[in-house]
Amino acid sequence: MQLAVDDDSDAALRQRVVDGEQAAFAKLMRRYNRRLYRVARSILRDDADAEDALQEAYIQAYRALPDFRGESSLATWLTRIVMNAALMRRRSTGRMAEVIELGAEPAMEQHGGARDENASGQPEQAAQRAQARGLIEAKIDGLPEVFRTVFILRAVEELSVEETGKLLGIPEATVRSRYFRARAMLREALARELDFAMEDAFGFDGARCDRIVEGVMRRLGEDNQETPG
């Protein structure tokens, strides 16, 4: 049966791309851009590198689409291409692959997404959201790769255990264990950050301390000038 012209299913878009309609490929990219970017970034931990890897993966996918046989979903196929492109880019830039045993306690690394859905709000609130988002993204970046990618797909992209397992080619039990482990590591890292923040809460040194001392001394000086000699 011939597909309808206005059919925007993955299969229809793929066929339109094969038939030479590049605009259909643009639709596919917009459909999967966020998910695939996050997968690439979970491996590379760098915005620019993730964008470059994603673009390279798209070029590879475009050229390979005529040979796609549908043995997996198009989303799974694209995700694997992006993962391979990200891993290749990491190797080419000299990054060491992380080797993590599930029984080990990996150290959390420090580093720098959800979009700000209310960017037009109060500047102070926007700044606070940006700061909180930056902290969370930094702690996610600090997860070892095997946990980080699972967490991105499950918690950020909200894929099911089954979908995540298929995308990564790992058993569902492994998805569950890595996801719960990632959550535990994030809670621990964020709790440590909160402890440090509490120590600094309502700080009174620096500019505030100087301002109050100067204000009082100025007032005392004014009082002395007004007091008869």
Explain the overall architecture.
The protein is mainly α. Among the domains are: 83 residues, Rna Polymerase Sigma Factor, Chain: A; 74 residues, Arc Repressor Mutant, subunit A, CATH 1.10.10.10. Helices cover 69% and strands 0% of the residues. The chain contains 9 helices and no strands. Helix 1 packs across helix 2, helix 2 packs across helix 4 and helix 7 packs across helix 8. The longest helix is centred in the last third of the chain and has 29 residues. The N terminus is likely disordered.
Please report the distance between the alpha carbons of the first and last residues: 106 Å
CATH first level of one domain: Mainly Alpha
Query: Any idea what the CATH architecture of one domain is?
Result: Orthogonal Bundle
Written as H for each helix and E for each strand, in order along the chain, the element string is: HHHHHHHHH
Calculate the mean pLDDT score and round it.
Answer: 78
Remind me, CATH topology of one domain? Rna Polymerase Sigma Factor, Chain: A
Annotation field: number of helices: 9
What is the approximate shape? elongated
Query: What share of residues is helical?
Result: 55-70%
CATH homologous superfamily placement of one domain: RNA polymerase sigma factor, region 2, helix turn helix motif
**Structural class by secondary-structure content:** mainly alpha
Largest sheet: none
What is the CA-based Rg, rounded?
Answer: 26 Å
Number of strands: 0
pLDDT < 50 stretches: 1-5, 95-120
Give the amount of beta strand, in percent.
under 5%
